[in-house]
Amino acid sequence: MSTPTDDGVQQAVEGELALLRPQVRSSAQAGELLHPDFVEFGSSGRVWTRPEIVAAMAGELSLAGVELVVSGMGGTRLADDVVHLTYRTERDGVAVGRSSVWRRTGDRWQIWFHQGTPLSPTAAAAPAEG
User: Fold this and answer.
1) Of 27, 37, 45, 99, which alpha carbon lies 20 to 30 A from 115's?
2) For the domain 7-118, what is the CATH code?
3) Greatest alpha-carbon span in the chain
């Protein structure tokens, strides 16, 4: 896994980090960061479409006081207009491995796919591979 060394990877990382902030998730900016064909396989096992996730994020401002720890974020450019990010999050002792695919649409980067996978306590404690 590479670090954000080019503009596309850096923009995808910035967009991903923005989407993790409750203030962004509950705003119109979240919708601008989501590709029209966005799909998420959530850590709960639920499959989310773009309209469903936009509606769900709009009601999440209550998470503003809950600390989300992000670690090991890195990305790789898969093509001129595609970036793959991987990282881990932890909230309230629950660790999740995350993977996102970002696509450049015109002059901006948008998240096209996201998957969250719950990590076992031993996997969560292991150092990130890279």
Assistant:
1) 27
2) 3.10.450.50
3) 42
